[in-house]
Amino acid sequence: MLKRYLSPAHRDDLVAGCPLPAVVGEVATTAPEQREVLATQLDDLAGQLAEHLPAHPTVSARHVALGLVAMMYGGLALARAVRGRALSDEILKACRAVGRLAIHG
């Protein structure tokens, strides 16, 4: 999931790629009526992801899942913002690496 979501191909696919990184800020500032929908989707995604994560002695699978989702959306948003620069690819690679650390320790 990390490899596919945090990829240059997904970053560059503005038509079929995930729209959430682009709209989250708008939900927070100008579309509060969408907060409940967003919260439900994030809650569902984190729950599904948590089911596939290994047990960790000090952090719940749900917290790891929520952290991964936040990192993925934020990482993709930043990579899109600086697309066309080497930094964009580096952001994607760094997020994948941190995600692997979160999953595997």
What's the gist of this structure?
The chain is mainly α and 105 residues long. It has a single domain, classed as Tetracycline Repressor, domain 2.
Describe the structure.
There is one protein chain. The chain is mainly alpha-helical and 105 residues long. The chain has a single domain, classed as Orthogonal Bundle (Tetracycline Repressor, domain 2), CATH 1.10.357.10. Helices cover 71% and strands 0% of the residues. The chain contains six helices and no strands. The chain has helices at residues 2-5, 8-12, 20-29, 35-50, 61-81, 86-104. Helix 4 packs across helix 5 and helix 5 (61-81) packs antiparallel against helix 6 (86-104). The two termini are 17 Å apart.
Give structural attributes.
105 residues; mainly alpha; Tetracycline Repressor, domain 2; 71% helix
Topology (elements, then pairings):
Blueprint: H1 2-5, H2 8-12, H3 20-29, H4 35-50, H5 61-81, H6 86-104
Helix pairs in contact: 4-5, 5-6
β-strand percent reads: under 5%
Structural class: mainly alpha
Low-confidence stretches: none
| Secondary structure: helix percent | over 70%
Total helical elements: 6
